[in-house]
Design brief:
It contains 17 helices and 24 strands. It is of the alpha+beta class. The chain folds into 2 domains: 269 residues, Glycosyltransferase; 241 residues, Distorted Sandwich (Beta-galactosidase, Chain A, domain 5).
């Protein structure tokens, strides 16, 4: 262990108990944060007493009232029984998380409405957290706890409790909580961030053998200091350590060292965001990540007058989330009926919060980040996001929202976007009835799937070309198969997808890349070409080209041109089209070169043509047990050859409406697609030039 870190850990443990801590109070400080070192009353971490009328008004706002009611009407009798009799101190994944959530919830409720019952259970939850010998289930060198989620989240919750119920705590209770932060929270967060900054000094990360986390789901953590340095699991300890530093500033000798490491880590992590605010782990993880960055930035500004609120393009990052918003119709996404385990997400997702779910993303993030951006950056589009997209899921939405802030809807310039991470999304709008086409190009990322050049197509409220939900986080579960190229609306070569890892280190990035080589838009249309050759070459040296071109004629005609070229060995190529059937409402049929996908409120019909030979469509199902669901898909096969060119022309129509007739005619170097669908006249040519570039004429 490095001497500076050893000194830090030793001094943190031995000095914490002797320090004279003071309560952190919600008070009536001025609206603007004081300059560093300025005198005057200490500010609340997230809000002052003068903010309470605004926060209380938010609790009755129709956008937040249901969430607030879920807080104030929580089953405190059940929570009390759990806290007093059922907490397992070697169970961090479920039990410690619930204890922390109870503490955070009831502390906030008390701060807003002074509810004595919530105060009592908040105190009980704080005591139970303090009773945990360790605040996380990971160890460095088999001894030192390092924190990825549980320790940072517990630290944040304890800091909030000091702030929100501090005036109702006894001197002993305050001292105990502050000691817990200083001895169990901050050191665990520090160890994590230090290890990520200096991975060569790490003695070895591993699971705590005393924790009951299942052996079947334990992965190899040897490279995690490197792997997690570019994931959301770096940001949570950043926020935990940063809040601890701000809460105990001037009271603990290591607070400045904590703050230095937290700030430098936040600055390093901010470079992982694109200049447009895009984020590689998917929009669900984006919300969790950016919210914690915003929490740290807000507390740092309010308590220390240090302004790190512009480390990344925060208004742009809300636009990134907006680009991946895709509400649908239906009864929501319910968890599978199979046996529950810790590595298959079980959160219910509402259809109105549906998203472009590339990677492990499941549902739209809550509105807290947008509320903070609207308030801090005076961004009207972020305010519109708060008022109309997703919902409140965390107290910070209530804390940050200002109802009087101006709102402005997104304009047509955001209908067609190529993000800096090469995700492409084209739409007609943001309502459930609007259409969305999304292409997954770009590079690796944590929580990714083997999904390069995969396509999602939503029209008339329904997912018609689908990307799977709830893939397993562990290779030991059968739902791990949903991560693979075979489970995506993508191309296989001789039944094989592109490169992906085996999961022994977790859901970390692969080496697979795809790159957008052309992107054009115009009135009512979008075209994009993505080259995924590199991703497929990694598993098949015979590959020289894997390229996909989309032509989206809004609102509901989609052309997909797939081109595959091999060096010496002729192989068959398959194009798969996944059916959304999580609610058992999806079906598909195929005959010859045509297929149909049917959902309750819409259907899709497609024809397929090939430059040589005649492709054949058939219906298959993934080999996953029925307890986990039924996963049908269409597979179109092009017989073994050195070169393949497949054109799939699809139309979508609402329930009860007829599909148009589109003709696929060969022309020199390509095809012309003509006909009508709905009120649309279609006349598109796709010509492959001598250089291999696809020229699209609309």
């Amino acid at each position: 262990m490095n001497s500076s870190r050893r000194t830090f850990l030793k001094s943190t443990t031995t000095l914490a108990a002797a320090l004279p801590f003071a309560a952190l109070r919600v008070d009536g400080a001025p609206a603007a944060a004081p300059a560093p070192g300025a005198g005057g009353p200490r500010r609340g971490l997230f809000f002052d007493a003068t903010d309470l009328p605004r926060i209380r008004a938010n609790t009755t706002d129709p956008r937040f009232a249901a969430y607030w009611q879920s807080l104030v009407s929580a089953d405190l009798v059940d929570d009390t029984g759990f806290l007093e009799h059922k907490v397992r101190y070697n169970n961090h994944v479920a039990d410690m998380m619930r204890v922390r959530q109870i503490l955070e919830r009831s502390s906030f409720v008390y701060a807003v409405n002074r509810d004595a019952q919530h105060l009592a259970i908040a105190k009980l939850a704080a005591r139970k957290l303090l009773d945990y010998p360790k605040w996380d289930y990971f160890l460095e060198g088999g001894k030192q706890v390092f924190g990825l989620q549980r320790a940072p989240e517990a630290t944040i919750a304890m800091c909030c409790a000091l702030d929100w119920i501090g005036d109702a705590l006894s001197a002993t209770e305050r001292t105990d909580i502050e000691k817990g932060i200083a001895e169990k929270g901050a050191p665990a967060c520090f160890t994590t961030l230090y290890g990520m900054k200096y991975p060569d000094r790490v003695k070895g990360w591993g699971f705590d053998p005393e924790d009951d986390y299942p052996q079947a789901f334990r992965v190899n953590l040897a490279r995690w200091p490197l792997i997690l340095n570019a994931t959301n699991l770096k940001v949570i300890p950043i926020a935990g350590l940063g809040l601890a530093a701000c809460a105990l500033h001037g009271k603990h000798p290591q607070a400045e060292q904590w703050l230095d490491l937290a700030r430098s880590s936040a600055k390093a992590f901010s470079t992982l965001f694109g200049s447009d605010g895009s984020y590689d782990e998917g929009v669900s993880y984006w919300g969790y990540t950016v919210m914690h960055l915003a929490m740290f930035a807000e507390v740092l500004w309010r308590t220390r007058g240090i302004d790190d609120r512009h480390l990344l393009n925060y208004p742009g990052t809300v636009r990134y989330a907006l680009a991946l918003t895709m509400p649908t119709v239906g009864n929501g996404l319910v968890p599978p009926s199979g046996p529950r385990n810790l590595v298959v997400p079980t959160l219910r997702a509402e259809s109105k919060n549906d998203i472009v779910n590339f990677s492990d993303s499941l549902t739209n993030s809550d509105v807290s980040v947008a509320a903070w951006v609207a308030r801090t950056h005076r961004d009207p589009l972020s305010q519109w996001f708060v008022r109309g997209v997703s919902e409140a899921k965390f107290p910070f939405a209530l804390i940050w929202h200002e109802s009087a802030a101006p709102a402005a809807p997104p304009g047509p310039e955001l209908h067609d976007v190529r993000l800096t991470n090469d995700l492409v999304v084209s739409r007609t709008g943001w309502a459930a009835a609007d259409s969305v086409v999304a292409l997954r190009s770009g590079g690796p990322g944590n929580h990714e799937h083997a999904d390069r050049n995969s396509v999602i197509f939503k029209a008339h409220g329904e997912r018609l070309f689908h990307d799977p939900f709830r893939a397993g986080y562990s290779y030991t579960t059968e739902r791990w198969k949903l991560r693979l190229t075979t489970a995506h609306t993508a191309v296989l070569i001789n039944g094989q997808g592109h490169q992906y890892h085996d999961g022994h280190e977790g859901t970390n990035p692969s080496w697979a890349w795809a790159r957008v080589t052309d992107f054009k838009t115009g009135p009512g249309w979008m075209t994009v070409t993505s080259d995924a050759t590199e991703a497929y070459e990694l598993v098949n040296a015979n590959v020289t080209r894997v390229e996909r071109t989309l032509v989206f004629l809004k609102p509901d005609v989609l052309l997909i041109l797939d081109r595959v070229k091999l060096k010496a060995v002729p192989l068959a190529v398959q194009a798969r089209f996944q059916v959304f059937n999580d609610d058992e409402g999806g079906s598909c049929t195929a005959s010859g070169t045509a297929f149909e996908i049917v959902r309750p409120q819409a259907s899709l019909r497609a024809k397929v043509a090939a430059a040589s030979g005649q492709p054949a469509a058939k219906i298959l199902r993934h080999e996953i047990s029925e307890a986990e669901g039924t996963f049908p898909f269409v597979e179109v096969t092009s017989a073994a050859a050195l070169e393949h060119t497949l054109l799939t022309v699809s139309t979508a129509a609402p329930k009860g409406s007829a599909h148009g007739e589109l003709a696929l005619n060969r022309i020199e170097g390509g095809w012309r697609v003509t006909g009508t669908h709905g009120r649309m006249r279609v006349n598109v040519s796709l010509v492959i030039g001598g250089s291999g570039v696809v020229a699209v004429t609309i």
